[in-house]
Known about the structure:
This protein is mainly beta. It has helices at 28-35, 40-46, 51-56, 60-64, 71-75, 88-95, and strands spanning 11-14, 17-20, 99-101, 106-110, 117-122, 127-128, 137-141, 149-153, 159-167, 172-182, 184-188, 191-195, 207-213, 218-223, 231-241, 248-256, 266-275, 283-285. Strands 3, 4, 5, 7, 8, 10, 15, 17 and 18 form a 9-stranded mixed β-sheet that branches. Strands 6-9-16-13-14 form a 5-stranded antiparallel β-sheet, with no helix packed on it. A hairpin with a 4-residue loop joins strand 3 (99-101) and strand 4 (106-110). The chain is elongated. It comes from Urochloa decumbens. Residues 20-66 form the F-box domain. This is F-box domain-containing protein.
Amino acid sequence: xxxxxxxxxxxxxxxxxxxxxxxxxxxxxxxxxxxxxxxxxxxxxxxxxxxxxxxxxxxxxxxxxxxxxxxxxxxxxxxxxxxxxxxxxxxxxxxxxxxxxxxxxxxxxxxxxxxxxxxxxxxxxxxxxxxxxxxxxxxxxxxxxxxxxxxxxxxxxxxxxxxxxxxxxxxxxxxxxxxxxxxxxxxxxxxxxxxxxxxxxxxxxxxxxxxxxxxxxxxxxxxxxxxxxxxxxxxxxxxxxxxxxxxxxxxxxxxxxxxxxxxxxxxxxxxxxxxxxxxxxxxxxxxx
Length: 288
């Protein structure tokens, strides 16, 4: 559908002359019925078409269908936001922006096309073995993380990263990932470079991923970390949130605890949760 659709006009007699009717003459209620079947980006594009769609695109009942069922609960995380004082379109727009919580170590946002909730936990929200000892780990500033900081592993014998989430996810199926990078990246003369000098130990044993939920869901998988130079989402597993009103508790981890050798050269950015099927970066699926 586009502006060219207005050519599908009817010709009607009026005072001996033909009048041309187009999409601009469509009642707003009819336009709104069309918008109910579209996702948010398409609604915004059609709002630029004519006044009928522009008016319909502001209707609360259109945007309420695009919001998750528990949007009122989610809005409580937004400072200064009052549900009764905001239109549904404004609520959608605010939740589509990152909403930080837990002192800025975590954030969630609404995925615009699907309307599902995404969440990210920074490395500082994770429990990392030896993180306070600079012989093993270094917190590094970077523009390659949404949290502007990553944990870089120089060398360690026992490697384990653990995270927990307690959150009311809108009902649906979600995928859990760790966002990892082998090698230390930097910028030189405007170009991104990656140093692999400290990468070692990951080829000897696979990393083990696992998660469990408060309602009995769980998964265990493993894979080798062997692709330096790129940020990769390592898939931990999928879980189902059956109720938008009940908090879902998750505990998850990645570990490589064979102490016969050291390992190093790994960047840990975050753990992320996306609606299943939404994969904004390259994904590697571990083997069960």
